[in-house]
Amino acid sequence: MTMEAGTEEFGLHPNSAQWLSSTKMMIRNVPARCTETELRSFLESLTSTEYVLEMPKTSQTKCKGYAFVEMCDPLSLAALAEALWQQRLPTRASERALKIHPAKFVAEMLPPAPASKLYFDL
């Protein structure tokens, strides 16, 4: 397996060039009882760059097991991916490491190209 490849256990390796074209990351294997405050505190220990955290919940308190982190630029996201690689939440006894994957690519954020003319002026 190359360093670029993802693994089933940890997600996409931080050395992958795909991180440099993404501004949003999906974090999987988030423990169900993990709170948003808990995850935010962990992320803030890894980065000083501003980010937006989305953490879907099944109810008022239970996490669905994943979260999204969005940053303004791909370099900051790539640095966070490197810091998160093979990590577990230190406040939880979970044996499973967090899985990370790019979730939004820069090309998705660009406006669509204008349609070309399909007719001719006579």
From TrEMBL:
InterPro entries: Mei2-like_Rrm_C, Nucleotide-bd_a/b_plait_sf, RBD_domain_sf, RRM_dom. Residues 23-105 form the RRM domain. PROSITE patterns: RRM. GO terms for molecular function: RNA binding. The keyword RNA-binding applies. Signal peptide: none annotated. Keywords: RNA-binding. This is RRM domain-containing protein. It comes from Symbiodinium natans.
